[in-house]
């Protein structure tokens, strides 16, 4: 499938606009959502500038063939990290369908900026909607609870309904300081609010966390963000009152949990493994909850990346491993 001329122009226009995104837009986004620090929004914008290059777009679309007539596709967007709804939007318009966007109240400033730029080039403009009423297909991203509601409400419409996912890391105890520092990017980018952020690590029995804490020391300024600090203080108080055992470096707590993957903000869960075979079985059992795995260890898992690379997905790294573009091209 080749990009249409208007789609190519739209991508080029958006890349240029993100390269020169006005300061007042970034400031407005931060005022709307205090988690959207200007540095984080710029980091997300830079990632998209890279993805929107013609060679990236062509390589992404090349394996596909368009087989459907244009449909109205509603996108119910999340707002946990900057531009989080943009991949679904780009995918819908790349497939030749019309996008109906229900924006998250936490991310209207950045998304409206992008939509205005894209609509300047597209023959079929993107529409922002307050309610999803007439759509031929639905793409939603939300919590497990909202997913249940969506599955019932949209049961008769072709849909992709995403649930809570998180990412994990596997260490073998032989990581260098640089590799552990790289993993800090996986942990702390966007304050740990994204599904590609690591919320649990698996380490060998007897693992010494001192090197890990030393390597991530440079990320300590995160505690100066008031909302992050509030979560840190709250969770620490809960653990102290409950006489829970945990490790603490004054901006991140490590707590052992043998079952859960999704740790609270400012907390990193960990668990030990005796052999990689045992660990492989454990990961296989919770694969449906995992977005990606960060490790230098050889594992048989989908969506494994190197330490420090969870926040650098390519266009074909689809959320939850569901090929959104194939879904859209298959609509009838």
Describe the model.
The chain is of the alpha/beta class and 332 residues long. The chain has two domains: 5-164, Aldehyde Dehydrogenase, Chain A, domain 1, CATH 3.40.605.10; 166-305, Aldehyde Dehydrogenase, Chain A, domain 2, CATH 3.40.309.10. Helices cover 38% and strands 16% of the residues. The strands form two sheets. A seven-stranded mixed sheet has the order 8-9-10-7-6-11-12. A five-stranded parallel sheet has the order 3-2-1-4-5, sandwiched between helices. The radius of gyration is 21 Å and the shape is globular.
Features:
Aldehyde Dehydrogenase, Chain A, domain 2, 38% helix, seven-stranded mixed β-sheet, 332 residues, 12 helices, alpha/beta, globular, 16% strand, Aldehyde Dehydrogenase, Chain A, domain 1
Topology:
Elements: H1 5-19, H2 23-32, H3 38-51, H4 54-61, E1 72-76, H5 86-94, E2 98-102, H6 109-119, E3 127-128, E4 137-141, H7 144-153, E5 159-162, E6 166-170, H8 177-188, E7 198-204, H9 210-215, H10 226-241, E8 247-248, E9 253-256, E10 267-273, H11 276-285, E11 290-295, E12 304-305, H12 324-329
Parallel strand pairs: 1-2, 1-4, 2-3, 4-5, 6-7, 6-11, 7-10, 9-10, 11-12
Antiparallel strand pairs: 8-9
Helix pairs in contact: 1-3, 1-6
Please sum up the structure shown.
Helices cover 38% and strands 16% of the residues.
Structural class: alpha/beta
Tell me the CATH topology of the largest domain: Aldehyde Dehydrogenase, Chain A, domain 1
Name of the CATH superfamily of the largest domain? Aldehyde Dehydrogenase, Chain A, domain 1
Most strands sheet: 7 strands, mixed
- Write down the overall mean pLDDT: 95
Please report which band the strand proportion falls in: under 5%, 5-15%, 15-25%, 25-35%, 35-45% or over 45%. 15-25%
Number of spatially distinct domains: 2
The end-to-end distance, rounded to whole angstroms, is: 18 Å
The CATH class of the largest domain turns out to be: Alpha Beta
Give the helix tally.
12
């Amino acid at each position: 499938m080749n990009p249409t001329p208007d789609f190519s122009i739209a991508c080029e226009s958006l890349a240029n606009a993100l390269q020169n995104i006005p300061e007042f837009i970034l400031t407005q986004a931060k005022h709307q959502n205090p988690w959207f620090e200007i540095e984080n929004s710029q980091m997300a914008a830079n990632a998209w500038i890279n993805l929107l290059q013609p060679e990236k777009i062509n390589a992404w679309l090349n394996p596909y063939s368009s087989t459907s007539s244009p449909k109205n596709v509603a996108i119910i967007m999340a707002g946990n990290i900057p531009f989080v709804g943009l991949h679904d939007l780009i995918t819908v318009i790349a497939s030749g369908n019309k996008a109906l966007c229900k924006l998250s109240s936490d991310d209207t400033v950045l998304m409206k900026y992008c939509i205005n730029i894209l609509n300047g080039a597209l023959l079929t403009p993107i529409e922002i909607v307050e309610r999803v009423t007439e759509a031929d297909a639905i793409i939603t991203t939300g919590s497990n609870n909202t997913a249940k509601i969506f599955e019932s409400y949209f049961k008769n419409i072709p849909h992709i309904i995403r649930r809570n996912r998180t990412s994990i890391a596997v260490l073998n105890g032989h990581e260098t300081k640089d590799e552990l520092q790289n993993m800090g990017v996986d942990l702390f980018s966007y304050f740990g609010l994204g599904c590609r952020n690591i919320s649990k690590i698996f380490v060998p029995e007897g693992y010494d966390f001192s090197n890990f804490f030393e390597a991530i020391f440079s990320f300590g300024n995160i505690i100066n963000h008031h909302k992050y600090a509030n979560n840190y203080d709250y969770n620490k108080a809960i653990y102290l009152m409950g006489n829970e055992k945990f490790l603490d470096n004054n901006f991140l707590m490590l707590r052992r949990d043998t079952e859960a993957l999704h740790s609270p903000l400012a907390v990193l869960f960990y668990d030990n493994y005796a052999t990689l075979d045992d660990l492989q079985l454990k990961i296989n059992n919770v694969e449906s909850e995992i977005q990606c795995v960060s490790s230098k260890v050889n594992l048989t898992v989908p969506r494994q990346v190197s330490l420090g690379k969870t926040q650098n997905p390519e266009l074909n790294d689809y959320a939850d491993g569901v090929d959104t573009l194939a879904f859209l091209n298959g609509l009838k």
